[in-house]
Design goal:
Blueprint (H helix, E strand, L loop, with lengths): L3 H15 L4 H16 L4 H19 L2 H14 L2 H6 L19
């Protein structure tokens, strides 16, 4: 799972750049692939935002193949394996190496 999602996003970035001519989407996919690879705490949330945007754009354009791929990616992110790799964000939870100041 840790390799599958970043590689899929890199492939999507290539397709978005070469065939679809959507360079902002390609750049976002590459950044999110790097976040997923590094297991950044906000990587899962970022992936949901990208996949949702791709799904919305595909639905409005009538591109059903891209819509199906985006929905499939969202479903894969819901699996227990994905939750183990990239835990969900918790309200008020801060990382141990966070630079946020302590509340008084």
């Amino acid at each position: 799972m840790r390799v599958l999602m970043p590689v899929t996003l890199v492939l999507y970035a290539i397709v978005a750049l070469v065939w679809l001519h959507r360079w902002p989407s390609a750049v976002a996919a590459l950044i999110i692939a790097a976040l997923l690879w590094r297991r950044h705490p906000r990587a899962r949330f970022s992936a949901y935002i990208l996949f949702s945007a791709v799904a919305a754009r595909a639905a409005l354009a009538g591109d059903w193949r891209t819509l199906a791929i985006a929905v499939a990616a969202i479903v894969v992110m819901q699996t227990p394996a994905a939750a183990r790799e990239w835990p969900r964000l918790r309200r008020g939870a801060a990382r141990a190496d966070s630079d946020r100041m302590a509340r008084p």
